[in-house]
User: What shape does this take?
Amino acid sequence: MVKFSKGRTRLSPRGAGFLVVLATAAFLAGCSKEAPPPPRPAPQVGVLEIVPKTIPFSPAFVAQTESSRQVNIVARVSGFLDRIAYREGELVKQGQLLFVLDTKPFIAQLNAAEGEVRAQQARLVTAEATYGRVKPLTEQDALPLADLDRAKGELDSAKAALFAAKAKVDTAQLNLGYATITSPVTGLASRALQRQGAFVNSTADSANLTYVAAVDPVWVNFSVSQNQAAKWQEMGRKGEIVPPANQNYEVDIVLPGGVKYPQRGRISFADPSFSQDTGSFMVRAVLPNPKMELRPGMFVTAIMHGAMRPNAIVVPQLAIQQGSEGHMIYVVNADNVAEVRPVVVGDYVGDHDIVVVQGLHAGDRVVVDGVLKVVPGKPVTVVPASAPAPAGAPAAETPGKTSAAAKK
Assistant: This one.
């Protein structure tokens, strides 16, 4: 309690303690207010200054291999299959023996034809002798002219019969030759469709024996759609694509698993018309295949080389961001402030880069490192970008990838 005396106010011990507590609380409250945190430093980002350059334009296609010359082996005469003379599935040379039909019937036919030739030769000798005796007698009026005409007719008939008999010999020799079947090309021989001992009918399906597919060189076929062709023509008119001289395109092949085929081929044929079913036209490339690594019917990736893309703007793929309205990229202006720039992207280049078709210009500074740290409209600290991809990185488009624009 507070007690008053003359001219002074005196606090009781309890009141004095209360004031001390208040003072201590006020002091502690003042000490509990921490100083505000220092401003957050601008994030460090690596930038790449855009410099247009000329790069290859190498579109990739899903392709399929085909034999450059596939020949069906068909029996030309009927008979029993006597022997299969090759190993199925292996390489056969041109002229190598494949099948042998039973030759005994054909030898008998040949002997009969040769016997008829001898008979007709004897007949001809008799006809010539008769004509030789009759002719002078008719000239002396010893015989009537009818005898001369008869002798002349028999002579001509004997000559014709001999000619026909010789033709039968030729036919019998051909049939005997057809009983031995050889490969018309060098290539891979398929399985035999008829087994040893089977009767082969030249006028029925049993005449099909096998096929031989030439694989060196090999054909690689792929299709170009109407939209692709129109797009490339438009880019060519604008100067965005420069085709090779004389349309001399080359083709690389990438096997399943990303293995590049060592031999390079060339475009040899392009279909002049579009398919009504697919809206595309077929293109064929010819590739050497000395080791027979490519077999007919394989699915591969064909990369077409020869065209160039001048003044192309290429950035790392990691610099491209996907927004609600499409692709975008962060650009640092002259005041080192990050800005959002909408862009239109094109084809992939190698394993790390992508072409920007619209939205960037020469001299723009693009954020390529530290993209996740960027806040649009806020300053950034520019530092050197990370090292680019190794010099040995492929310059062609990565097989199996489509352009980012096509994914939209």
Remarks:
- Confidence is low (pLDDT under 50) at residues 1-7, 389-408.
- Residues 44-55+310-407 form a domain with the conserved putative lor/sdh protein from methanococcus maripaludis s2 fold fold (CATH 2.40.420.20).
